[in-house]
Amino acid sequence: MTPRPHGRKHDELRPLSFKRRYTRQAPGSVLVRWGRTTVLCTCCIDQAVPAFLVGKGQGWLSAEYGMLPGSTSSRKPRDKGGKVDGRSVEIQRLIGRSLRAVVDLSKLGERTLWLDCDVLEADGGTRTAAINGAFVALVDALATVKEAIGPAANVIKDSVAAVSVGLLNDHELLDLEYVEDKDAEVDMNLVMTGSGQFVEVQGTGEEATFSRSQLDRLLKLGKFGIDAVTKKQRQALGSGWPLT
Fold this sequence. Notes:
This protein is an alpha+beta fold. It is built from 5 helices and 9 strands, in the order ββββαβααββαββα.
């Protein structure tokens, strides 16, 4: 097997950290560093809901995702005129679905949770880093409205985390960075809850195919990575971890 960058084992994550309260204005603010990938995740609370929920007594959660111009080796133009590129739309919908899977919207009242994920530096796994940081930011934001809706444990049903796996030179790898991702025969992103339930599985053969046994091994490897990410989230939140 070809050695991985920085000597990582096939089932080893890049160094992962969550720096909470990174900015002062947003109720939840987390800087995620995953190897060289860096994402700022904030959670703001709007005292209103979309029109389709007005008067129904429940809340909503939505997400936005973007890459700053200097986040990649060649400058990425900013989205202008309200136009967002297709990749960003796909990813922000994924982030929203992932977080809504573990939030009891009926407990929010008529409030909207906004998760904004801005990529400062991209080196593979930006969508998975965004989901992981967004969960931590969400927990911190909910703590600021505890008097209105109760503790975060009333709203959050489970934790959620994401990781990438893939096949490169016919070997299963966990948490691909860019130099691996660009050449991978199979690229897969997994989103799972802390209790082991799948939220989303995005898997694609890049001009290649993969077998059922390879898929099973990739899912097993991904679950191993999700558990490690969940442990990091729990350590970062400390006493603020909302689950038993």
